[in-house]
Amino acid sequence: MLYRISAAWARTELWVAALLAVGVTLLVLLNVVTRTAGNALFWVDELAIYAMAWMTFLGASAALHHRSSVAVTLVPDAVSEKARRIMLKIVDVVVFAFSLMMLWFCWRWFLPLDLIRAGFDTMAFQGQTFNFVYAEPTTTLGLPKYLFWSVIWLFSVGATLHSSMHLFSKDRPT
Question: Does residue 73 form part of some domain?
Fold first, then answer.
């Protein structure tokens, strides 16, 4: 069950990342055309950067599911199969701990309960917590940056799901 949920989440992450890759390409082409025409759209650069960041975080999370992250395999390739499995479990534990810490950091950064207690009033939230995460706008788009930073939540949830699947799932061999 956990494997199927993780696989579905990874598929979704990869689809969204692929769409974002197309979006980045189109934004860069639009930037080239508008700059060549002498009418540069400065917001295009910023949106392309945010789209690439989203693509990277979603792709990294999906890579955890597929165990296709960049790795140095010199030592695991040189040891016995039993030692390799133990090393893989240790890596799974480290990734799981990292993903839990990322969730905790997101919780501490965005303070969702404090925002709810403030009645979603960001000015009251800022006054109570001295946290300005919901106030900072993007440079050229004029949108709140927390909308773009929310990908860190998605990455953290995905990484936790995928790493817990590798640690606890008996559906598929790891």
Answer: yes
pLDDT of residue 171 exceeding 60, the answer is no
User: Looking at the domain assignment, is residue 61 inside a domain?
Assistant: yes
Domain residues for 154?
2-168
Sequence-separated (6 or more) residues with CB below 8 Å from residue 94: none
pLDDT bin (cut points 50, 70, 90) of residue 39 is very high
Measured CA to CA in angstroms, residue 93 lies from 13, 64, 153, 168 at distances of: 22, 13, 20, 10
More confident residue, 72 or 130: 130
d(CA 84, CA 34): 53
Count of structural domains, the chain: 1
Nearest Cα neighbor of 137 from 147, 127, 126, 152 is: 147
Q: Give the SS3 label for residue 137.
A: strand
Q: Which residues of 115-124 are buried (b: 16+ CB within 10 A; e: fewer)?
A: beebeeebee
The conformational region for residue 73 under phi > 0 = left, psi -120 to 50 = alpha, else beta, is alpha
Give Cα separations from 21 to 17, 55, 59, 105, 153 (angstroms): 6, 7, 10, 27, 20
Tens digit of pLDDT for each residue in 51-73?
A: 999 999 999 999 999 999 888 88
